[in-house]
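HOLO CASE FILE
Compound: iron/sulfur cluster
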Amino acid sequence: MCGIFGIYSFEKINVAKKIYYGLFALQHRGQEGAGIATSDGRNIHHYKNIGLVTDVFRDDILQNLFGYIGIGHVRYSTTGGKAVENCQPFVVKSSFGNIAIAHNGDLVNSNELRMDLEKKGHIFTSSTDSEVIAQLLVRELLKTSDKIEAIKNTLKKLIGAYSLLIMFNDSLIAVRDPWGFKPLCIGRDDENIYISSEDCALTTLDAEFVKDVEPGEIIEIKNGGELSSYKLDFDVPEYMSIDVDVPSIYRGATTCMFEYVYFARPDSTIDGISVYKVRKRIGKILAKEHPVEADVVSPIPDSGVAFALGFSEGSKIPYYEGLIKNRYVGRTFILPSQNERELAVRLKLSPVKSVLEGKRVVLVDDSVVRGTTSRRIVNMVRKAGAKEVHLRIGSPKIISPCYYGIDMATKKELIASNKTEEEIGRKIGVESIGYLSLEGLIKAIGRKDLCLACITGKYPTDINFEKIAKRL
Ligand code: SF4
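Model generated. Tokens follow.
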């Protein structure tokens, strides 16, 4: 996952504090580390550390990050571990000047690229893809001083997911990979141009949404706010034809369906589609696909809320909050180790006995990955007195790992990779379980140019599974 946020202030106002607020609004995309790099036109200043945005930055740190251009990053570790050197933005020094990079996504060929660079004498200080991109860019900049040319030459070598912010001393560049895996959008107000992983951060800063960065688009901001758009000369190969009657927004794009289902904040709009509306539609479709006789529909908060509202509307079963979330605990799915995840579930959710006791309860959640969290929650609901528990899931079965930036699990750990729905239901301990169909998912999102690899096992890029296994 990860969240990236950048500002170019054409009024030359210090941007660090606004980047801090932007990152705060994107905190749901990564909670392990945060960083900001700013440029005053001549020098780059930067600070990064492990922890939540509010833990990493104090006022005195932000005051030292002066400059009118800046980029920030919240980290969720996939490639590379939790160490501070793997936090971003990544800053490299070159004869061309300093460059800072913030990256959301994972490359599937970073191992090959890294080994190749090492053979050529490059020494790496982190284990992240972002450093690989930075080193490749520096090499290209030595061949041509045209920044856009150098970026295009670098990007041609990358396979996989990358939404990028690249900051030079005097300009800010945003890139979305040709597949459009991860979201990226532009906003503005009277003083600044903003680039953000999600538009919810623009709303926080009272900035106006301008447009989504399109798959394969490079946006350059320089000379006091002049915006130029370039297109990557890159053919995305034919991926998968899906026979569902909905439009394709971008030809060849494969935007991560999980952004709509789980990752993005519900108040965000991705490529013109409201995440909240998608989740409500999913709930309604689920109610049709998997009807059940019950007394109460309850979400597994927070991500299950819109699904459960939709399910309640579609089924006419009343909506209640059967579980209350402690809002000071992070999202369990994106905490990396199993131990942390298990403890976090107990800290995070509490059953409401008066809602659940003696009732037939439909619990609605976004997805089931390993099944361990769902089993614990179902147990909790039963202990609170529920007579029956029926689980409804707002995505199809996850059967394959993600190689584009989501540390889901290995295939073996995925509960749905080798079990039928009935077996999964028994393992989790529910009376019935119902997953959204693939067709229902595409209809609810309203576009079919999506990456669906973790639910179909068909990947939109070439993947060398053997090399990836070695790297992991
Ligand atoms: S494999 Fe799944 S989680 Fe990964 S990018 Fe594709 S849809 Fe998203």
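CASE NOTES: The longest strand covers residues 3-9. The pocket of iron/sulfur cluster is lined by residues 181, 256-258, 402, 404, 406, 451-454 (CB under 6 Å).
CLOSED: yes
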